[in-house]
Design brief:
Blueprint: E1 8-12, H1 18-34, E2 55-62, E3 65-76, E4 79-87, H2 96-110, E5 115-121, H3 125-133, E6 137-139, E7 151-157
Parallel strand pairs: 4-5
Antiparallel strand pairs: 1-2, 2-3, 3-4, 5-7, 6-7
């Protein structure tokens, strides 16, 4: 089922906002349920990484209810990383994740990125399928994910124009 364009609103917010905190808490709870073993990590995102010029933290609302979030941060001059993508279960299957991912890729382009990378978990088949449908392919682990056996890293070259 897709979401009518007029029903979905995506906007920037501060990572320190209460709505961001609520979505990240829900994301972390879901990740803890999927990865309960010792050593499973919820990778961080700091407010300065999504400050103007460095990245952006977005929330998505359906019919006025905030139901999703995601971030992009620049990690190298022409490389950006997607972080903290999450859609609340009640809003899944409605095109929210695809729309949010497309917007994050646009924000990455605005930061000067020509490549986007991300990390997800090996027990998140929905996320793996979403990213594959959007043109991402598996890449070697990088950065903080090198020591994480549960991580799957993916990347995509960005077109110069949306």
């Amino acid at each position: 089922m897709s979401t009518p364009a007029g029903e979905l609103a995506i906007r920037r917010t501060e990572l320190t906002s209460s709505e961001a905190a609520a979505l990240i808490a829900a994301l972390n709870a879901e990740l803890s349920a999927r990865y309960p073993e010792d050593g499973a990590t919820h990778f961080r995102l700091d407010p300065d990484e999504v400050a103007a010029g460095n990245g952006v933290f977005l929330v998505a609302a359906l019919a006025g209810e905030t139901v999703a979030c995601g971030a992009v941060r620049r990690i190298a001059p022409r490389i950006a990383e997607i972080k903290r993508m999450y859609v609340m279960p009640r809003a899944r299957g409605r095109g929210v994740a695809q729309a949010l991912l497309a917007r994050l890729e646009g924000e990455a382009r605005a930061l000067g990125a020509r490549r986007v990378v991300l990390e997800t978990g090996n027990r998140q088949p929905e996320a793996l399928a979403l990213y594959a449908r959007a043109g991402y392919s598996t890449i070697d682990a990088y950065g903080e994910y090198l020591a994480s056996p549960l991580s799957v890293c993916m990347g995509k070259e960005l077109d110069l124009v949306d």
